[in-house]
Amino acid sequence: MKKITLIGLLLVITSIMIAQVNLDSLRRTAQGDVEAIDALLKTANDNIVTSPRRTIAIAKQALILSREAERFTQGAESANMLGRAYSVLAKYDTALSYFFIAEGFSQRSGDPHQQASTYVNIGAAYTYMQEYKQALRYYARALEFNDESLNKRVYHNTAAIYMDQENYKMAREYLLKSLEISRESRDSIDMATTMNILGEAYRNTSEFSEAQDWYDKALAIFESQGSEYGWVIVMNNKGTLYLDQGEKELALKIYEQALKTNQKLGNQEAEATLLTNIGVVYRLKGNYDRGRSYLKSALKIALENGYLNRVEKALLELHETLSLGNKYKEAYKVQNRYISLKDSLDQLRNDRQIQELQTRFDAKERELALVHSNNENQQLRLGRQQLLLVMIAIILVVIALVVALILNRYWVIRRLNKNLEESNSQIQSQNMRISGNNDRLLRSNKELKEFAYIVSHDLKEPLRMIGSYVTLIERRYKDKIDEDGRDFFTFATRGVKQMKQLLDDLLKYMVVETNEYEVEKVALNDVLTGVEANLLSRIKETNTFLEIGELPTLRGNRSLLILLFQNLISNAIKFRSEEDPHIVISALKDNNKFLFTVKDNGIGVSEDYQKKIFSIFYRVYGKHQYEGTGIGLSICQKIVGLHGGKIWVESEEGKGSTFFFTLGDMEKMVANEDLITA
Ligand code: ADP
């Protein structure tokens, strides 16, 4: 009784540890979430320019996960990513609504970098929408965080706004700040880009020599970096600089040079700009026909690509050129087109303002609703998970107790049996009370049989019940259980199944040990034909080649011999290597016994385990690698023993195994001493 309490206690502790592991795994899942979100964000970021729609799909998942796991920093990052992807698609309203969600998350996360970059993103979206006042407000907020990695972008964007507002003095101030940062971080492409805009800032105030200086510096950098894309843009501006100074021929030469390089690059926007500018030069030179043809090509490209600003400029210039060339009718048409385009552009800007207010309002509402439902979900989930853990702990404890009962019973009876046999042999040697001991032996055998019965019926019944209830709970509460919960149920069901298998195998073992067997003449080749038929589907499935030699006929028990060969052959198939299984069964006469071999080309057994594998429950590999309970070979050993023989294995790991056993010609079954001590 002491032992059973101890085992029971041990198993209860084990179950509690398992429950603890589950809790740990829940915690680990939270850690896993962070990694999963980071992985999603990385993929999303990699795709943002080449495939913004993919980024959107991925970042949405990351946003949902972050929200569930209450990871605010990553939530902010995901929402910012979504906003940026929508900006790439020029859907600035949607972009803004995500940036506002990011604002909510970043404030809750308290992560200054996320907050600052959210403000920069909002500023940039407003800049695209030409809502400069708002944009400048958000940039100023971003600057308060003094985040070095973001300052450059803020200065740059602020300068762009001042440029657009023709406040060149302010623009230069910010451009120089931005240039300073790029210089410190040795980002030459950024430096050249900023220098180009500085050139623009001076050109617009007619400070031509400063402008030329900045353009030339920018060109030199782009050239040395092999960036033709940037080079074309600066060349275009330089051309315009010459034109501003009345140097038409020089301007034309530079524009044409830029156009030639750009045609290789296929930058449509630059092409539209350059064609427009060349058209203007021809007009200024009085060549209206050529001017018109360039401007028309520019207009076509701008329209095809939806570059509204370019369309506007091309139409204006075309109108001018047509009028100067005395093509009034056409000029009138172009003017009408220009007016209607201007109207719809203004309309678009107005709509945007209204829509932006609405978007901001919607985003806040959405965010509030989310916070609310998030809290509710979180509580519900926690409650359910606790309930589940308790249920699983109870199931585990019940299973543990059942196992403890079986093992204890088995040990007690086995010890009893052994003691009895010992005392029996003593009594035999003294030749006393033989019949009494025989009675006790018989009684103990009877008890063992009863035990086998308990295993097969009494214990299997509650196990079956646990199994059915686990399945029932799972089915009934399926919708209310989350992914983890379903995993727990799978584990519980798998545990019940394994235990059932263990009980079945244990029962087989007990039956071999306790039954009385009839001895008859058995033709082993017939036995193997039967075994082959039993295993036919396994043999076909695994493409096994079974080579059966000439086997003798001997006196023994047919069912036990079938079980013996069947166990050995199934093992040879189960523990097969990469090659198709090839099993050779042969027999040799050795005095009045036969030596049998079952040889396979499987994974083999290393020398350390060759003796141990015949012990009950002993297995070299875990259940996850190979199914089984570790009883098969102990049954084989018992059967061989009952036939007065011995069994052993010779093998080298990776080179197959050969199981040897001897069988004699029996008059009746004998109990083998080795077996009992094995
Ligand atoms: P089970 O097959 O259920 O694991 P067994 O008692 O039949 O139990 O075998 C015990 C162990 O012996 C196996 O787990 C396996 O590691 C090893 N074994 C048995 N037969 C072979 C074989 N033919 N080749 C390699 N290993 C074997």
Alpha-beta classification: alpha+beta
The global form is: elongated
Strand order in space, largest sheet: 2-4-5-7-6
Main sheet record:
5 strands, mixed
| End-to-end Cα distance | 25 Å
- pLDDT < 50 stretches: 671-678
Beta content comes to 5-15%
Order of helices and strands: HHHHHHHHHHHHHHHHHHEHHEEHEEHEEH
Helices, by number, come to: 23
Overview of the molecule:
The chain is α+β, with helices and mostly antiparallel strands and 678 residues long. The protein contains 23 helices and 7 strands. A hairpin with a 2-residue loop joins strand 4 (582-590) and strand 5 (593-599). Helix 11 runs antiparallel to helix 12, helix 16 (328-430) packs antiparallel against helix 17 (434-476) and helix 17 (434-476) runs antiparallel to helix 18 (483-514). The protein is elongated, with a radius of gyration of 43 Å. It starts with a helix and ends with a helix. Residues 671-678 have low confidence and may be disordered. Bound molecules: adenosine-5'-diphosphate. Residues 571-572, 575, 600, 602-605, 613, 619-621, 628-634, 657 line the site of adenosine-5'-diphosphate.
Strand-helix topology:
Elements (H helix, E strand, L loop, with lengths): L1 H46 L4 H18 L2 H17 L3 H18 L2 H17 L3 H13 L3 H17 L3 H17 L3 H16 L4 H18 L2 H17 L3 H18 L2 H17 L3 H18 L2 H17 L3 H103 L3 H43 L6 H32 L5 E4 H11 L1 H6 L3 E4 L4 E4 L1 H17 L7 E9 L2 E7 L32 H11 L4 E5 L5 E8 L8 H5 L1
Parallel strand pairs: 2-4
Antiparallel strand pairs: 1-3, 4-5, 5-7, 6-7
Helix pairs in contact: 1-2, 1-3, 1-16, 2-3, 3-4, 3-5, 4-5, 4-16, 5-6, 5-7, 6-7, 7-8, 8-9, 9-10, 9-11, 10-11, 11-12, 11-13, 12-13, 13-14, 13-15, 14-15, 15-16, 16-17, 16-18, 17-18, 18-22, 19-21, 21-22
The structure holds adenosine-5'-diphosphate.
